[in-house]
Amino acid sequence: MIDNGCARNACPAKTVRERSNTPHSHLYTGVVPMEATNLQPLSLSLDQASGELRVRFNPAAGMPPPDRTGIRQELSSKGWGSFYFDDKAVIEFIGACRTAAEPLEMTIGARRDGEFALKVSEDMLTAWLTLVPACGGEAVTQSELSDALRAEGIVYGIRHDEIKAAFAAGQCERLAIACGEPVVEGEPTRFETLYDRAEDPPPAEDLDRIKYTDFCHILLVQTGDALMRRIPPVPGKNGTNIKGHPLLPQPTPNIAFLNDLKGAALDQKDPNLLIATSGGQPALAGNGVTVNPVIEVLDVDLGTGSIEFDGTLRVGGDVKAGLRIKVTGDVVVNGTVEAAEIVAGGNVAVRNGIVGHLDSRSGAQALPDTTTRIFCEGVVQALFMENAHIEAGKSIVIERSARQCELLAREEIVVGKEGRNGHIVGGSAQATNRIATGTLGTTTGIKTQLQVGLDPYLEKQIAEKDAEFKRRCDELDRVIKLMTFLKQNPKKGEGGIAEKAEATRRQLLAMIDTLTAELKSLRARLELAEQAQVEAAVAVCYGVEVRIAQQVWQAREDGGRTVIQLKGGKMAVSR
């Protein structure tokens, strides 16, 4: 190990300054000769030209071979202790002296000047300094380093404090003494999808009340849902290399959403947010998202879960029991609907049948809650229906039969093609204008109830309006009592309280007048009996009951073709 700190490490790629080994004139004059007497066992000499330090051992003196300590002491005594000392050569020399029979001489060190080297990175952003201390020679000065930096054109980011500390220490290894400012690249436009984020789980206390079938496992969005966020680009920042040259970042283009995206548009309040303009199934379309309002699934089962969205649903197979569908458009089922619930803003069309559950309890008349229930604003169509509750805003059309069903239609119910060859057995059917089929009831006398001439939804609307009318009257009564109290206690009505009570009274009176007019109009539409009728193109069986307005007709026996309607306010039966 070199204890004087003058060992040479591998020099950097570029050596900027390396001194010669010419001796200092004020330290050395001429050549330092070997000791004059050859009887001296150990002698040292310095070659002033090359700076080499040589040692000579003469075994003839009768002295034991020298050791490392003795050699170092001899060097120090001659003023050469700071020179470069080659430990490996010294050890080799000492070993050779032990067996030498003749005088032995070897180079064991040298006088060396200080050196430094600069290395510059390929990107011209960093310059490193390696500083090697002098060993008996002349040290490197900071001015020499400054000259070298200028020669290399390094003028930016020079770290003067680090340079000063390195020269104070006398050495350094690959020290960064100049650092440029790197380019900060900009961030390009990004598009982040939002519709596929998981929803928050329901509260733990609700888990016991939630059915697995209530969850929808199809990725759907509703009108107004966030689809994609556009994150604008962030411009980059210029840099400067150590030669003072500017460095420019890559350009960051400003990319917009795609135009004319089906079912999607920009949020009016946030131009960087894309929202759904219709319900349906979202699909990524480059820098945007489209929404298909018509969803197609193979079956509605546990794999899909219940489905709710704004749009139309097409089912290639069946709708399984226990599932629920709620859409604003149509529902088209290519297979069968089991004991499920369907709510549609349009029509419901079932290619095969609708099969629900019959209440198995003894004496039960109504259908159970677990049976098939369909509610739509348009027309319900099916091949046949069994044990189903169906409500249609327009009509119910059944190609073959309806057995033990509850049917309600605002316009008409038709069972059988053009009202022929169809069959209504058991249950109930209500329509405003017409009920038409081939056969009503069955020869076994199953009770079958039909009603026409009354809008089946008007009674519900009238009941709701009546309840609201009563609620507003109760509110008006409380306001009048308050006003009476304020009149008797004028101070209580200060601060605008009395005026506010009077304004509320007037508002409630206006509401009551509006409700009175609406109730009058609804009741006027309640009876449409003269235009309503029930038609059985083939037969009417015992057990059939027909109600038109307030009139009731019952089939006492089986009969053939029958048309039932009101004439002059009385029930008329034509066969």
UniProtKB/TrEMBL annotation:
Pfam families: FapA, FapA_N. One of its GO terms (biological process) is cell morphogenesis. Residues 117-285 form the Flagellar Assembly Protein A N-terminal region domain. InterPro entries: FapA (IPR005646), FapA_b_solenoid (IPR046865), FapA_N (IPR046866), MinC_C_sf (IPR036145). Keywords: Coiled coil. Residues 498-532 form a coiled coil. This is DUF342 domain-containing protein.
